[in-house]
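We emphasize that the prediction below concerns an isolated chain of 484 residues; any contacts that depend on oligomerization or on bound cofactors are therefore not represented. The input was used exactly as deposited, without trimming of termini.
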Amino acid sequence: MMAFSDQPLRLAIIGGGFTGAALAIYAAKASVRPLSIEMIEPAARLGYGAAYGASDQAHRINVPSDRMSLFREDPTHFTRWLFDHGRLPDRESTDEFGRHYVPRSAFGDYVADSLNCVLARSRFVVEMRRRRAKAIALRRETSIWRIDLSDGVSLTADAVALCTGHSAGAPCPISAGALRHRGLVLNPWAPGALDRIQRRDRVLIVGTGLTMADVVATLDRAGHEGPIKAVSRHGLLPRRHGLFVDLDLLDGEAPPQTALELLRLIRRRVRQCPGKADWQSVVDALRVRLPEIWPALPAAERRRAARRLLPFWEVHRFRISPQAAVSIERALARKSLTIERAGLISLDSRHGALDANLRMRGGASIWRAYDSIILCVGPAKDLRADPLFANLLDRGLARMDEVGLGLDVDPLGRVRDGEGDPQRGLFAIGPMTRGSFGEMTGAPDIVRHIERVIGKLISAESAPRGKARDSREIDVGVTSLRFP
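Result of the prediction step, given as a token string:
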């Protein structure tokens, strides 16, 4: 029989969206010692985050359900959950190949339910307290970490995992009048955010990626009749899904040493695709090997790849569901949707309309009036927009990665301090580590990374002696978690 300490490891998870919930699930499943989790998340629900909290049924996950399981050893787990909970069969969610692209909210429900089930099964070893607040400061005190919360509470932990993703950000200055305008949508995934758009509104969508696809699908479903303009710096649209065939990108070759070699490798593999495989299979194969290939590239080559190739990589990597693709194709065909290369300089409100100052291709700037403007630009690029990360950077407890996309972490996800040294007990998981690993945005990528690091994370520190509590009901004042 395996012996283990009865001293609970105190793990603080900052961020309770998909990444934080998945980490809690894996920590609970892997722990062979008492584990006390502090889940710090201001939103009402755990496991959803921004992307999977969308209530609009036209907003669909852009990956088939059999590739979205929380457990890689059980790839059909999510699909079975969908059938068991009456979400499938659903004619609108299933494509001609029998693959299921369900609403984003269904995946959020699946993650939340899986978290509750795992915690219930682990209740004699694992307890989880829910803190509905934001973490605003973090500091080391000898062998522990202290976390200050926005509600005035201060917590201590043996290990801390930063799982917040990036903060939402505005792409340009926005006047007070524009912020008050009924037609400005800052978060298109917020429940009811698109309900205020009227049928004949002149609509500007800023961004042409996955979020834009969700918005067009919603407007198409609602019978919107006004003109829609979507703009981005490159004017690129995400590609549609094809077949899924697993390949090995390197296939015995040495990893590329430059951005150009990486590009040539991808193109060569596309030309060599066997049978039913195509470029999409090569892109997926690169995602799997990127955590190995990306850190091996010299820093200058990583910056070069991010600067030159990132926009093109994203439209091939972040492909859209067949349902969203049909909506976009239909809108383009009837010319109700047009795509234009332009950047947003500023937003104002005059004479009852929203005015967008756009930088056009070639450098000229123009003003255009719209009834509604929907921001689909993704997360803020500056980590300092979040007080917690500003605190970490200012204290020298963290530094930006060499590409400038997020925090610098070592291969195990340990946050490097200002001198570049990995810190024991401080981890970062999810999108903020993308610059260190090359890709860490999609749920499958995050799950693979959690599997790699969970053993180290939950054995990060020794904990004070104490008896593990039964976690069937843990009241922490602000909220109470009950598990069956």
